[in-house]
C-alpha cells in the first residue's frame, strides 16, 4: 500500500502549546538536574559526617522506594514485598563476608548471589501472584507473606544468620565516607534515570495501561502476567542491589531489613512523595530517612505518630502526593504528551483471507444448573457482517465471551480462522485473529488517544524500553475511524476527556489496530447520537464489504442492523432459533412472538 503520512499533527495550532510546554518542562528538568548534581558532588564539603552517613543509607532505601513506585504507582501492583528483596541483597553480602571473608572473589560471589537470588524469588512470587484469573488482592497478600516468611527463616538460622541479632562487624569494602556518598548517590541517580527512561518509553506506557485496564490489555494480545512477572524480577534485582550496597556500607544486617514493617514504610514513602511520579518517592525516601534520624531519638513515639498522621492526611487530601504539589510551579507535575506522526500500516493478504473465519460446534455455557447457552452451532465467513439479535437475557454477550476466551464455555468447540481455541486465554485468541469491542467504551482513561492506539499495536510492534516512537502506524480502516470521527486532531487528548461517542470510536480504532480477521462488536452504537450511529454504521459496513473482515454485531438498533448486515441470527434463551436475511427474520411469526415475550426455544414448544 502507499505510505500515506499525516503531517498536520506536528504543525497544527493545537500542537503549538504542547511544544512550548515541553520546552519549558525540559528547561526546568535540566535546572533541577543541575542542582541535584551540585549537591551530589559538593555534598562531602557541605554536610557533616553524621548527615553523610544518614544520606548514604537513605540513598539505598530510596532506590527500593523507586522500585515500589514503578510496581505500584505505574503498574497498579500494591506490593509489601520489596523489603524482602532488599533484605536478600543485604544478607547475601553479610553472610558471604562473615563466613567466607572479604575479597574481590567473595564480593563477586555475594553480588552474583544477590542477582540470582532476587531473580529466582521474584520469578516464583510472580508465578504465584499473576496466574490466570488471580485477583490483585491475592497478589498483594502474596507480597505481604513473602517478607514474613523470609524474616522467620532468618530468625531460625541460629548463628549462621545471627538470628534476631543479625550480623555485625564483618569485613567489607574499605572506602571513605566521601567515596561511599558519591557511590551511593551515583547508584541512586542511575536507578532514577533508568526508571525515568522506562516510564516515559512506549513500554512504560504499557505499564500504565495495565494499571488502568488490565482486562482490555489482554484483549489487545498483551500477556499481562508475563509483563508483570518480568517487571517484578527487574525491580526485585534493583532492590537487591540497593540492599547489597546498604549492607556493604553499614557492616550490619538484621531481620528488620527484610521485614513487613520496612515494606510498609516503602509504601508510605511512595504515597507521601507521590505515587506514579518516580521523583516523588525518590525525594520522599531520602527526606523521611533524614528526618527520622534527627527526630526519632528526641521523640521516638511521637515521630511515628506524626509520620502515620501525615500519611493519612496526604491520602485523604492530596492523593497525588506532596512532591507534585511542590513541583507544580515548575511545570513538572505532569508529562506533556507529544503528537505522533500517523502512518498507514500495510495489511498483509492473510488479514483479508477468504473462507470460514469463525466456527462453533455444540457450544454450551452453564452457571450451575442454569443453562445460558444450549448447543450453539454457528459459522461466519470472511467478508460477512452478521447481526446477532435477540431479547435481553438471550445470551448474546455470553456467546461473545465464549468466542473470545477458551475458559468461558462449558462444552463444545470454537475455531478462529481454522484453529481450535481450546482453553486458550483472550491474549492468545487475539493472536489468532480476534478483536473484541465491548458494550461500554473499554479504553485506558489516563492515557492519550495516541498512547491508547500505540498500546493496541503492541501485538504488531514490540514497544521500546528506551523511547517513544514518533510514528504511529495503523491499518487503513483504523485510520479511517480516526479521520471520520476527527480523533486524528485529538491525539494528545487524554481519553477520559473525550465524549462518549469519541470514546466508542477510540475503542473501535484500538480493536482495528490489531489487524483482526474476526471482529466482535457488542452494541457499538449504544448511547450515540443519530449522526454518530450513522458514521459508525458506515465504518462497520466497510470493514466487512471493503476490507474482508468477519464481523459479528450485537445491536438493538434494528434499523442499523437492516442497513449493514449481510445475515441475521436470532438468539433466544441460549439457542439459535432462526437465521436469514433481515426481511425474513423480522417478518417471521416466531421472531415476533419472541419479542412479544411469549416464546420458548425450538424443541420446547408444547
Automatic annotation (TrEMBL):
<dbReference type="InterPro" id="IPR051120">
    <property type="entry name" value="ABC_AA/LPS_Transport"/>
</dbReference>
<dbReference type="InterPro" id="IPR001851">
    <property type="entry name" value="ABC_transp_permease"/>
</dbReference>
<dbReference type="InterPro" id="IPR017871">
    <property type="entry name" value="ABC_transporter-like_CS"/>
</dbReference>
<feature type="transmembrane region" description="Helical">
    <location>
        <begin position="229"/>
        <end position="246"/>
    </location>
</feature>
<dbReference type="GO" id="GO:0005524">
    <property type="term" value="F:ATP binding"/>
</dbReference>
<dbReference type="Pfam" id="PF00005">
    <property type="entry name" value="ABC_tran"/>
</dbReference>
<feature type="transmembrane region" description="Helical">
    <location>
        <begin position="29"/>
        <end position="47"/>
    </location>
</feature>
<feature type="transmembrane region" description="Helical">
    <location>
        <begin position="84"/>
        <end position="102"/>
    </location>
</feature>
<feature type="domain" description="ABC transporter">
    <location>
        <begin position="358"/>
        <end position="598"/>
    </location>
</feature>
<dbReference type="InterPro" id="IPR003439">
    <property type="entry name" value="ABC_transporter-like_ATP-bd"/>
</dbReference>
<keyword id="KW-1003">Cell membrane</keyword>
<dbReference type="GO" id="GO:0016887">
    <property type="term" value="F:ATP hydrolysis activity"/>
</dbReference>
<keyword id="KW-0472">Membrane</keyword>
<keyword id="KW-0813">Transport</keyword>
<dbReference type="Pfam" id="PF02653">
    <property type="entry name" value="BPD_transp_2"/>
</dbReference>
<keyword id="KW-0812">Transmembrane</keyword>
<feature type="transmembrane region" description="Helical">
    <location>
        <begin position="53"/>
        <end position="72"/>
    </location>
</feature>
<feature type="transmembrane region" description="Helical">
    <location>
        <begin position="180"/>
        <end position="199"/>
    </location>
</feature>
<keyword id="KW-1133">Transmembrane helix</keyword>
<dbReference type="GO" id="GO:0015658">
    <property type="term" value="F:branched-chain amino acid transmembrane transporter activity"/>
</dbReference>
<keyword id="KW-0547">Nucleotide-binding</keyword>
<feature type="transmembrane region" description="Helical">
    <location>
        <begin position="301"/>
        <end position="327"/>
    </location>
</feature>
<protein>
    <submittedName>
        <fullName>Inner-membrane translocator</fullName>
    </submittedName>
</protein>
<keyword id="KW-0067">ATP-binding</keyword>
<dbReference type="InterPro" id="IPR027417">
    <property type="entry name" value="P-loop_NTPase"/>
</dbReference>
<feature type="transmembrane region" description="Helical">
    <location>
        <begin position="137"/>
        <end position="160"/>
    </location>
</feature>
<dbReference type="GO" id="GO:0005886">
    <property type="term" value="C:plasma membrane"/>
</dbReference>
<feature type="transmembrane region" description="Helical">
    <location>
        <begin position="108"/>
        <end position="130"/>
    </location>
</feature>
<dbReference type="InterPro" id="IPR003593">
    <property type="entry name" value="AAA+_ATPase"/>
</dbReference>
<dbReference type="InterPro" id="IPR043428">
    <property type="entry name" value="LivM-like"/>
</dbReference>
Amino acid at each position: 500500500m502507499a505510505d500515506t503520512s499525516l503531517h498536520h499533527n506536528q504543525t497544527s495550532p493545537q500542537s503549538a502549546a504542547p511544544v512550548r510546554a515541553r520546552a519549558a518542562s525540559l528547561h526546568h528538568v535540566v535546572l533541577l538536574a543541575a542542582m541535584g548534581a551540585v549537591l551530589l558532588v559538593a555534598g562531602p564539603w557541605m554536610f557533616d559526617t553524621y548527615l553523610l552517613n544518614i544520606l548514604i543509607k537513605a540513598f539505598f532505601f530510596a532506590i527500593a522506594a523507586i522500585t515500589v513506585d514503578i510496581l505500584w504507582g505505574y503498574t497498579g501492583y500494591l506490593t509489601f514485598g520489596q523489603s524482602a528483596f532488599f533484605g536478600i541483597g543485604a544478607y547475601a553480602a553479610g553472610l558471604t563476608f562473615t563466613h567466607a571473608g572479604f575479597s574481590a572473589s567473595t564480593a563477586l560471589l555475594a553480588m552474583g548471589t544477590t542477582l540470582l537470588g532476587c531473580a529466582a524469588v521474584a520469578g516464583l512470587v510472580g508465578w504465584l501472584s499473576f496466574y490466570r484469573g488471580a485477583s490483585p488482592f491475592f497478589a498483594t497478600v502474596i507480597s505481604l507473606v513473602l517478607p514474613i516468611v523470609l524474616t522467620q527463616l532468618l530468625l531460625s538460622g541460629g548463628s549462621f544468620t545471627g538470628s534476631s541479632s543479625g550480623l555485625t562487624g564483618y569485613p567489607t569494602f574499605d572506602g571513605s565516607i566521601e567515596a561511599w556518598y558519591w557511590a551511593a548517590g551515583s547508584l541512586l541517580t542511575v536507578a532514577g534515570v533508568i526508571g525515568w527512561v522506562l516510564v516515559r518509553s512506549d513500554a512504560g506506557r504499557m505499564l500504565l495501561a495495565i494499571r488502568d485496564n488490565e482486562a482490555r490489555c489482554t484483549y489487545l494480545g498483551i500477556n499481562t502476567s508475563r509483563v508483570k512477572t518480568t517487571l517484578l524480577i527487574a525491580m526485585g534485582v534493583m532492590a537487591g542491589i540497593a540492599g547489597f550496597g546498604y549492607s556493604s556500607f553499614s557492616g550490619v544486617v538484621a531481620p528488620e531489613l527484610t521485614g513487613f514493617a520496612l515494606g510498609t514504610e516503602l509504601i508510605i514513602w511512595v504515597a507521601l512523595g507521590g505515587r506514579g511520579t518516580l521523583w516523588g518517592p525518590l525525594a520522599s525516601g531520602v527526606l523521611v530517612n533524614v528526618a527520622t534520624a534527627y527526630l526519632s531519638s528526641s521523640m521516638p513515639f511521637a515521630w511515628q505518630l506524626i509520620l502515620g498522621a501525615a500519611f493519612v492526611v496526604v491520602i485523604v487530601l492530596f492523593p497525588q502526593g506532596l512532591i507534585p504539589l511542590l513541583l507544580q510551579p515548575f511545570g513538572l507535575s505532569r508529562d506533556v504528551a507529544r503528537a505522533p506522526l500517523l502512518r498507514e500500516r500495510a495489511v498483509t493478504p492473510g488479514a483479508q483471507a477468504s473462507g470460514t473465519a469463525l466456527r462453533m460446534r455444540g457450544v454450551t455455557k452453564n452457571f450451575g444448573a442454569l443453562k445460558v447457552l444450549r448447543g450453539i452451532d454457528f459459522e461466519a465467513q470472511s467478508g460477512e457482517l452478521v447481526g446477532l439479535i435477540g431479547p435481553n437475557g438471550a445470551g448474546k454477550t455470553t456467546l461473545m465471551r465464549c468466542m473470545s476466551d477458551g475458559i468461558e464455555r462449558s462444552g463444545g468447540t470454537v475455531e478462529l480462522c481454522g484453529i481450535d481455541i481450546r482453553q486458550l486465554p483472550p491474549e492468545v485468541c487475539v493472536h489468532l485473529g480476534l478483536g473484541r469491542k465491548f458494550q461500554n467504551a473499554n479504553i485506558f482513561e489516563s492515557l492519550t488517544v495516541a498512547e491508547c492506539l500505540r498500546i493496541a499495536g503492541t501485538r504488531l510492534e514490540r514497544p521500546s524500553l528506551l523511547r517513544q516512537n514518533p510514528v504511529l502506524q495503523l491499518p487503513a480502516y483504523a485510520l479511517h475511524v480516526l479521520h471520520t470521527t476527527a480523533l486524528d486532531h485529538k491525539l494528545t487528548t487524554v481519553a477520559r476527556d473525550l465524549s462518549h461517542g469519541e470514546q466508542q470510536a477510540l475503542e473501535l480504532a484500538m480493536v482495528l489496530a490489531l489487524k483482526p480477521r474476526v471482529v466482535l462488536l457488542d452494541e457499538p452504537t449504544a448511547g450515540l447520537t443519530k449522526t454518530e450511529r450513522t458514521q459508525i454504521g458506515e465504518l462497520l459496513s466497510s470493514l466487512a464489504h471493503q476490507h474482508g473482515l468477519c464481523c459479528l454485531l450485537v445491536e438493538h438498533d434494528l434499523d442499523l442492523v437492516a442497513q449493514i448486515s449481510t445475515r441475521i441470527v436470532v438468539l433466544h434463551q441460549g439457542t439459535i432459533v432462526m437465521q436469514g436475511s433481515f426481511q425474513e427474520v423480522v417478518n417471521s411469526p416466531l421472531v415476533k412472538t419472541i419479542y412479544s415475550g411469549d416464546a420458548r426455544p425450538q424443541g420446547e414448544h408444547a
